[in-house]
Design brief:
- By secondary structure, the chain is an alpha/beta fold.
- It has a domain of 94 residues: GMP Synthetase, Chain A, domain 3, CATH 3.30.300.
- 30% of the residues lie in helices and 23% in strands.
- The protein contains 16 helices and 26 strands.
- The strands form 7 sheets. It has a 9-stranded mixed sheet, with helices on both faces.
- 52% of the residues are buried.
Length: 543
């Protein structure tokens, strides 16, 4: 096999946005200059092969679970055999898509790396998806082969019956069954040369989480992911080879993929995957037991973890990353008081691969998400794309070494304009360059001529001791245009009655400008969230 080949399958190139609708890719950091020049590379070669051959990481632990610990050299040997199965047994050629179905596990990580090392396109999916949702992804991505956790076969097989383009399903996390990935891999000699496709060939297809409805397929190239490692991981996160990482974000989303696989490999660190579902108490206990130093999860989960870490200190933990949804300052302060750790906040997105605004440690400013990550440029603009004066609320625009490329989707024209990426967020930037999140563009509530950001009201509500979690939307109103409505989950022992409504309304009036208080409060037992913990406000808006 020639290890230096361009993409042979043209499915993705034929469906990428026209060049005029694609983002500009900028490499302003000196460290990023190299990414303008290579014509052929493979991110697994850079992150794994070189870790073993050039960086001295061969004997360091990479993937850990309660049952196994694999060094970088061990992982390379297993990934090479998986790549051989995909090429030799499945007959796949560079550029073809492989669907991956599984939760966060050593097996899922190995499968993802094997796909990308073979020059194929990884299409990772969430474990809770049902047959119809999987069928929609299959219809969009057109994979002919899937690697699936053996415990999750039923729904994928049902989707396969309705989508025959998926010709073969190979189960993993199954040790001795004929046709399993373990058995097929054991028959290979591991002599595999990484398929180094074009640097701009697509390495992964990530589906957005669906917080606003129909999910979109986003493309990222080998160059995108490798260039990104020189931005937030290096300059803000500060991950090191001695770190052990844990977290709840799924590998099927780029937040989890970066934090729980790509960035640790880039730094020579290790990742621990438990074999039981996370609960707030279990997460705190696990961090202590494995000596984890970096933790990734959503703000809601940190809020629930706070009482447990306050009772059981975890001295190994040094970095706590929050992303996936807006971090209320009340949650940041609650966690800091409980753990002694200043949370590392950030805003990013599947379209940009990962976080592009963030600050850590002494650079944190209360109420702000942070400053633009080195390597990116951010500005707050008006509807025409002109930059607004500082301390003015407007639309966020981003440009840097990554950008949005949807697969065959008309929504590309809304996200990318004149080379800039528009994530759909309303922000304010202060005189010192700090960015303050206000709301999603479509979450800004305009009531009686006033602009109200839902997250600001949520933050105020969360300061009340009776509130466990909440979501705020604007409800259409004939008199005021919109009224602020809150959906509130109360902590045990509190009643959702008229007195509680007035109590919470008065609390908000005393915390922020009185016109922002929720005129309507509806109590509920749970809020609609994605698997990554993002609040689905579009569901709250439905009657």
């Amino acid at each position: 096999m020639n290890p230096l080949v361009d993409t042979s399958d043209t499915f993705i190139p034929d469906r990428l946005p026209p060049l005029a609708m694609q983002p500009q890719f900028r490499y302003d950091l000196p460290e990023l200059a190299q990414w303008q020049t290579p014509t052929q590379l493979n991110l697994v070669h850079e992150l794994l092969d070189k870790a073993v051959s050039d960086k001295g990481f061969a004997d360091l632990p990479l993937l850990r679970s309660p049952h196994i610990t694999l060094s970088y050299a061990d992982v390379k040997a297993r990934v090479d055999r998986i790549a051989q199965v995909l090429v030799d047994d499945c007959g796949l050629i560079p550029g073809q898509r492989v669907l991956l179905r599984g939760g966060n596990s050593v097996g899922m990580a190995l499968a993802w790396l094997g796909v990308v090392k073979a020059g194929l396109v990884a299409v990772a999916t969430m474990p809770l998806l049902r047959a119809k949702e999987l069928g929609d992804i299959i219809d969009k991505a057109q994979p002919t082969v899937a690697l699936c956790d053996a415990r999750l076969l039923d729904e994928l097989q049902a989707a396969q019956a309705a989508n025959p383009v998926l010709a073969r399903i190979v189960p993993f996390n199954l040790m001795d069954a004929p046709g399993s990935l373990a058995v097929l891999s054991a028959q290979k000699d591991g002599n595999f040369e990484t398929v180094r496709t074009s640097a701009d060939a697509i390495a992964l297809m990530a589906f957005t989480s669906g917080t606003t409805g129909r999910a979109k397929a986003v493309m990222h190239s080998h160059r995108d992911v490798l260039a990104y490692c020189e931005t937030w991981p290096r300059h803000v996160l500060g991950i090191q080879s001695r770190d052990t990482v844990v977290g709840s974000p799924p590998l099927a989303f780029t937040f989890g993929l970066g934090g729980l696989l790509i960035f640790p490999m880039w730094a020579g660190a290790s990742v621990y995957f438990p074999d039981i579902p996370y609960t707030p108490e279990a997460m705190v206990r696990l961090v202590g037991e494995v000596g984890a130093t970096i933790c990734y999860t959503a703000p809601t989960f940190y809020r629930q973890m706070a009482p447990f870490i306050a009772q059981h200190a975890v001295p190994s933990l040094r970095i706590c990353v929050s992303a996936g949804e807006a971090l209320p300052d009340a949650t940041r302060q609650l966690w800091k008081a409980a753990s002694g750790i200043e949370m590392l906040d950030g805003i990013g997105g599947t379209e940009m691969f990962h976080i592009f605004i963030s600050s850590a440690g002494a650079d944190v400013r209360r109420g702000a998400i942070g400053k633009v990550v080195p390597g990116y440029t951010a500005r707050v603009v008006d509807d025409a794309g002109d930059e607004l004066p500082r301390c003015t609320v407007g639309k966020l625009a981003i440009i840097g070494p990554t950008g949005c490329r949807y697969l065959d989707d008309p929504r590309q024209a809304k996200y990318v304009k004149d080379g800039w990426n528009y994530p759909g967020d309303a922000f304010m930037q202060d005189e010192d360059g700090y960015f303050f999140y206000k709301a999603r563009d479509d979450d800004m509530i305009i009531t009686a001529g006033y602009n109200v950001g839902g997250p600001e009201v949520e933050d105020a509500l969360l300061l009340h001791p009776a509130v466990a979690e909440c979501g705020v939307i604007g409800r259409p109103d004939d008199e005021r245009g919109m009224v602020v409505k809150a959906f509130v989950v109360l902590k045990p022992g509190h009643s959702g009655d008229a007195l509680m409504v007035k109590t919470l309304q008065d609390h908000v009036k005393a915390s922020i400008a009185p016109f922002k208080y929720p005129r309507e409060i509806e109590f509920c037992t749970r809020l609609p969230r994605t698997e990554t913990g993002k609040l689905q406000r579009f569901k709250l808006r439905k009657p």
